[in-house]
Amino acid sequence: MFFRENGQFKSTYRADMQLLPIAQDRYFVLALVAFAFFAVPLLVSDYLYLSIINPFLILTLAAIGLNLLVGYCGQISIGHAAFMAWGAYAAYNLVQRVPMLNFLVVLVLAGLVAALVGMFFGIPSLRIKGLYLAVATLAAQFFTDWIFARVKWFTNYSSSGSVSTAPVQIFGWTIGTPRDKYLFVLGVVIVFTLVARNLVRGHLGRAWMATRDMDVAAEVIGIRPVYAKLTAFGVSSFYCGVAGALWGFFHLGSWEPLAFNLNLSFDLLFMIIIGGMGSILGSYLGAAFIVALPIALNQIPEKLGVPLSTAMASNVEFMIFGSLIVLFLVLEPHGLARLWAIGKEKLRLWPFPH
Amino acid sequence: MASLPVQALPASKRLDEPPPAHTRIGPVILSVANISLDFGGVRAISDVSFDVREHEVLAIIGPNGAGKSSMLNVINGVYHAQQGRIRFKDREFAAMQPHRAAAMGIARTFQNLALFKGMSVLDNIMTGRNMKMRTGILAQALRVGPAEREEMRHREVVEHIIDFLEIQAYRKTPVGRLAYGLQKRVDLGRALALEPEVLLLDEPMAGMNVEEKQDMCRFILDVNEQYGTTIVLIEHDMGVVMDISDRIVVLDYGRKIGDGTPGEVRGNRAVIDAYLGATH
Ligand SMILES: Nc1ncnc2c1ncn2[C@@H]1O[C@H](COP(=O)(O)OP(=O)(O)OP(=O)(O)O)[C@@H](O)[C@H]1O
Ligand SMILES: [Mg+2]
């Protein structure tokens, strides 16, 4: 936040290595979390949960996952919705076939299934980079689309190919209302945000970033590329698997095989490009942006008395996305998160810029 | 000089005064034998052999394109030679692997900076400790006790290196923002973080002014004297080379044309013609 950290000197390495070394940042984040848990439920309508807040939180989780791979480890993937699909279908099948499992366990197992599939599709990254790897990850997308449309076992032989879920129960709490879903998803996303922060601050995160920045030098100081890349694919897909399960159970409720198609993969990529590569905060900002923009385009002109037709709104949306992505790629590859950091830096020195 | 991360070294290596060269230098620790390396028809190294002795400073010199960098790349496994063998600490390899070289105690710096641009000075050097860090993914994810303690232990070693290289002020600076000479120091720091037995330095002083060169020489000699680290160094500045090396290997067009003490190499006819002669 816009504070000055004057006078906060670190006298131990532990203090210097905290999650948020500046005290005001800590208070701000704690206040924000308290606000999200206690104030938001008093203020927000069901419509807002369903159309903005819940999808925003779940997509944030997926964006963090993709960012760990692309932003932190430097490996491209344009098929990441596929791993969301694996998580969603794994959770669906576990709930159907092993009903006594706690849903938290289901979430973790769904993440693990996605992680395994992700690591498998990450194997090409050991030999190829850039565009070629992008094409290889596209294979994950098409294979996944195909398998869930064709192999009936995954959809429990439902005649339409689509699956539907009943409200989840955890420890006697039925997560039925939009507000309940919000609170549960919020808890999950906060935990996984902390985990992601911990991972990127630890030696695994450094191995990823080293591989991203200079792979030969990383190898020469003893970081095995196999280890760095496959753990990145695994952890990243784990996140997307959990996000996919949440998306299925708490956002869609019921879905058809193409719910996790290439469009969703691209949306995830747009989120991290606009929000900021290699930034957890950026994953939040990017997801918020992508979720909010279509709705803003719908509502703002209407409020101003010049309503856009649906077709027009979606065209404008594409134009805005397209130009923003080009702008960010060219001018600020670190996205909104970097703009935020620059603003913070400026305000920290204000009013004496030197 | 600052205190150093020397817990692992025997007391005899912690002497403040360097012993004279003839007692300091030990038996052969690394030798390359009959190495030949081709790049699709271009012969970068042909049939080169030499030994490196424990605790010595060995310089590799030669004109541009002589194959010096390629030689270092063969030693730590970035390139695989078509012929020849590498012997390190009584184990013989036809081809080294980079992470195996690192695990066995060979570290290196790069001719063209190869720092991790998106990371701070501290993180760059911490990465040099990665190989020694063992906590699993789950412990790191939850940052439970062992992960935190391991991180702190290694942070301490890295802080010693930062003190030693006199870059305390830049600890949290992204390396890309540092001046060139400082980046070279970070590169050295990252290699030192491995606590290597053999340190391969590819033109550590290229592009530096006289003062920066002096600092770098001091760091290299201090490392050599205090840790007993064996140094293999590529350098174009003849003054520096004659000053700090115990022995010199001369390459020209991929062949070895000289090998001996600075005095011997200076008097070697072939060397004078091929290399010194050309530049003086
Ligand atoms: N990766 C590579 N692919 C193709 N050719 C290479 C490669 N690396 C080196 N070479 C060639 O091998 C020869 C030796 O190169 P090397 O970099 O080892 O020379 P050097 O002695 O380090 O020169 P300098 O003093 O300019 O650094 C040169 O002809 C170079 O073009
Ligand atoms: Mg070279």
List the helices and strands and how they pair.
The complex is a heterodimer of chains A (354) and B (280).
Chain A: H1 13-16, H2 23-43, H3 46-72, H4 81-97, H5 103-122, H6 130-150, E1 163-164, E2 168-170, E3 173-175, H7 178-201, H8 203-213, H9 215-220, H10 225-252, E4 254-255, H11 262-275, H12 280-303, H13 310-331, H14 335-349
Antiparallel strand pairs in A: 1-4, 2-3
Chain B: H1 21-24, E1 28-39, E2 42-53, E3 57-61, H2 68-75, E4 83-88, E5 91-93, H3 98-104, E6 106-108, H4 121-127, H5 137-142, H6 145-164, H7 180-192, E7 198-202, H8 210-227, E8 230-234, H9 238-244, E9 247-252, E10 255-260, H10 262-267, H11 269-279
Parallel strand pairs in B: 3-8, 3-9, 6-7, 7-8
Antiparallel strand pairs in B: 1-2, 1-4, 4-5, 9-10
Adenosine-5'-triphosphate is lined by residues 39, 42, 44, 62, 64-70, 111 of chain B.
Structure write-up:
The complex is a heterodimer of chains A (354) and B (280). Chain A is mostly helical and 354 residues long. Chain A has one domain: ABC transporter involved in vitamin B12 uptake, BtuC (Orthogonal Bundle), CATH 1.10.3470. Helix content of chain A is 72%, strand content 3%. Chain A is built from 14 helices and 4 strands. In chain A, the strands form 2 sheets. Chain A has a two-stranded antiparallel sheet. In chain A, strand 2 (168-170) and strand 3 form a beta hairpin. In chain A, helix 5 packs across helix 10. The longest helix of chain A has 28 residues, at 225-252. The two termini of chain A are 20 Å apart. In chain B, 38% of the residues lie in helices and 22% in strands. Chain B starts with 20 loop residues before the first helix and ends with a helix. The chains are: A mainly alpha (354), B alpha/beta (280). The interface between A and B is medium-sized, with 29 and 41 residues. The structure holds adenosine-5'-triphosphate and magnesium ion. The site of magnesium ion (MG) has 4 residues of chain B, from helix 2.
